Amino acid sequence: MLQSLAVIALGLLPSIHAITLTLPNQLINNPVKAESEVRAGDFDGSKLWPGANETSYDWWYFDAVSATTNESVTVVFYNTGPDGFPFGYNGGGPFSVGISGSFANGSLFSLTAPVTGDVVIKTDESGISGEWSGSGFSFYGTSLDGPNPTYVLKVDAPAIGSYGTVTLRSRAPPHVSCGLGHSGSGEELFPNVFWANAQPDADAVVDLRIQGTPVQFADGIGYHDKNWGDAPFVSVTSSWYWGHARLGPYSVVWFDAIDKAGREYFSGYVSQNGELLQGSCTKNAVVVRPWGKNSEYPPKAKTGIMEGLDIKFDLGKGKEMLVNVTTGLVLIETDNYVRTEGTAKATIKGSGGKGAYEGRTLFEEFKFN
Ligand SMILES: *[C@@H]1O[C@H](CO)[C@@H](O)[C@H](O)[C@H]1NC(C)=O
Ligand SMILES: *[C@@H]1O[C@H](CO)[C@@H](O)[C@H](O)[C@H]1NC(C)=O
Ligand SMILES: *[C@@H]1O[C@H](CO)[C@@H](O)[C@H](O)[C@H]1NC(C)=O
Ligand SMILES: *[C@@H]1O[C@H](CO)[C@@H](O)[C@H](O)[C@H]1NC(C)=O
């Protein structure tokens, strides 16, 4: 009897990893724990245990920018306390969903959908789904272990007049700050801030209607990651540059930040035709500096929008990738935050000098000084 039970249990082994997590729409009133290492099969899952308290946060971020028009969209699913990531806190409970971006004529939209119910996150060997109940927003992703993982965001949110879908099909492997995201890889970016980048670059198809205006493009450069933290974001972060770009066969992601202790942290990612070329968090793995107008470094709250960014990826063995980003349509501007579209040019040094690539980028800057 015991023996046959054991056999049945073994037969079911793969589905042992199937988890349905239901998070109630209320803050935890105790210390919470932030995941700090990749757990097999749960790269994109919920990262705070048992949930978010007042000073912690967990979010799922998706964006897409058209290669040829002004159009873009960013969707962020939040689980945050008021002092965790205050810019994502909407009052009431820890959950909300933000959708913002730009129309073809260059005008901007920014809307927040309230969440009335639970957040339900399901993970199993086929992938992940996340539903922010009552908001009209959900996402579905195929397994990150398969080829070209694909995420679909579904939007049916009458409260904010937003409808449609965003589809992101990966063309570059997932990573964490120091390289590919294997089971056990560290997820810390700098103390109290964590990161898992499920889709560093994706072909994006956007088919949305926002308050009656279409945001529709099939030539999108897409991206999806998540960040989380177990201390107030604003008290541990001084400034940061993050962004992604597609340049010919290359997909790049940069992260170069300074924490409140004044230490600089780096995470550089370059893949070529879907193969990793660089995934590193060593010193100067990627160095990002503003150029032109408003190029004060480190940036301050009152520093205006940089004209562009000079980005240097160390590819090892004397090779470097230089990416020159020029700021384009600005999507969000506050004293503490800038998000913008842009164009980028890349050259590779140390590879015989051949090859210059042009492309599209979406990037951001935080500054709390
Ligand atoms: C929230 O969690 C953090 C991280 O564990 C902890 O430092 C903080 O004291 C917690 N807050 C409450 C109200 O328990
Ligand atoms: C794109 O946006 C810019 C800035 O708002 C605007 O001047 C331009 O006309 C827009 N392009 C098109 C094709 O509408
Ligand atoms: C651009 O499109 C938006 C959305 O349809 C509209 O509200 C706005 O008036 C347009 N702006 C211009 C300058 O035409
Ligand atoms: C970056 O591009 C701008 C605008 O084209 C140019 O003025 C600047 O010299 C470039 N920077 C580098 C380091 O090539």
From TrEMBL:
User: Does the keyword field hold Signal?
Assistant: yes
Q: Name one Pfam family in it.
A: AsqO_C
Domain AsqO/PenF-like C-terminal: from-to ranges: 237-367
Q: Where is the signal peptide?
A: 1-18
Which keywords fit this entry according to its UniProt record? Signal
Which InterPro entries does the entry mention?
AsqO/PenF-like_C (IPR057722), DA_N (IPR056402)
- Where in the numbering of this chain does the Diels-Alderase N-terminal domain appear? 19-228
Say yes or no: keyword Signal present: yes
The name this protein carries in UniProt is AttH domain-containing protein
To which species is this protein native? Trichoderma harzianum CBS 226.95
